[in-house]
């Protein structure tokens, strides 16, 4: 069995979907943008409820760790069972154990790409997506038991604090890994998306790169969502793709909440240039 999983990992609302859409457009190399509702063809999630139902052979409680976690190894084994060299797998899970279960087993892992976003901006998107207040969100990302509930088509996901999550995915590993900041993708997409392509071992072709960046621009994604909706949009949010800009927290996040985020996550924010 090959170690074929390339994890596309991030804390929720940090740019994971954007990177996956870029990769879909780069790898497929179409003459028009890949429809956003077909992006799932270019990478599977590790928390998709139907895969856990299939493995269990029955309906399950998506929120019960004692039900979900014993199925996880079989779900991941099913992903690598296609014998492909690379399987792109989206995850928001922390790289750690939960209830004694290794969430990111080395035996299936080829490499990892970790997408990092300023938590001051991330909380704005997180709150909107999950239908939470900003106060609830700031408090949640500071709790080591933070998890997203298993609802609809996803099972429970184990996050921990924002700082713990970043630390878990950026500490040394036995396999290749890269870290890319959301803000760098915005500021210099050609340089940093090229690094993502290189990490996969795929040749970087400049015209193809520029076209994939253009086809995955927030303007393009927002327009597609207006026309056809987006399957990954939560029921609590009015849309998935907002402006995608950085620095919005200065206008939209109350100062007391910004101060709490900076107190709670000072060390890691300093490490990655956010303070």
Q: In the CATH classification, which architecture applies?
A: 3-Layer(aba) Sandwich
CATH topology name: Rossmann fold
**Strand neighbour order, sheet with most strands:** 2-3-1-6-9
The residue-averaged pLDDT reads 92
Determine the strand fraction and express it as a percent band: 5-15%
Low-confidence stretches: none
Number of helices: 13
CATH superfamily membership? P-loop containing nucleotide triphosphate hydrolases
Count of individual domains: 1
Q: Describe the global form.
A: globular
Main sheet summary: 5 strands, parallel
Give the terminus-to-terminus CA distance: 43 Å
* Share in helix: 40-55%
Order of secondary-structure elements: EHEHHEEEEHHEEHEHHHHHHH
- Cα Rg: 18 Å
Number of beta-strand segments: 9
The SS-based structural class is alpha/beta
Q: Tell me, what is the CATH class? A: Alpha Beta
Keywords:
275 residues, alpha/beta, Rossmann fold, 5-stranded parallel sheet, two-stranded antiparallel sheet, 13 helices, 9 strands, 12% strand, globular
Question: What's the short version?
Answer:
The protein is an alpha/beta fold and 275 residues long. It is built from 13 helices and nine strands. Helix 1 crosses helix 9, helix 4 crosses helix 5 and helix 8 crosses helix 9 (206-215).
What does this structure look like?
- By secondary structure, the chain is α/β, with parallel strands linked by helices.
- It has a single domain (5-271), classed as Rossmann fold (3-Layer(aba) Sandwich).
- The protein is 45% helix and 12% strand.
- It has 13 helices and 9 strands.
- It has helices at 16-28, 49-56, 65-80, 119-130, 134-140, 162-170, 182-187, 189-199, 206-215, 218-228, 249-252, 255-264, 266-271; strands spanning 5-10, 44-45, 87-91, 97-98, 101-102, 109-116, 147-148, 157-158, 177-181.
- It has a 5-stranded parallel β-sheet with strand order 2-3-1-6-9, sandwiched between helices.
- Helix 2 packs across helix 3 (65-80) and helix 8 packs across helix 9.
- The longest helix is centred in the first third of the chain and has 16 residues, at 65-80.
- The radius of gyration is 18 Å and the shape is globular.
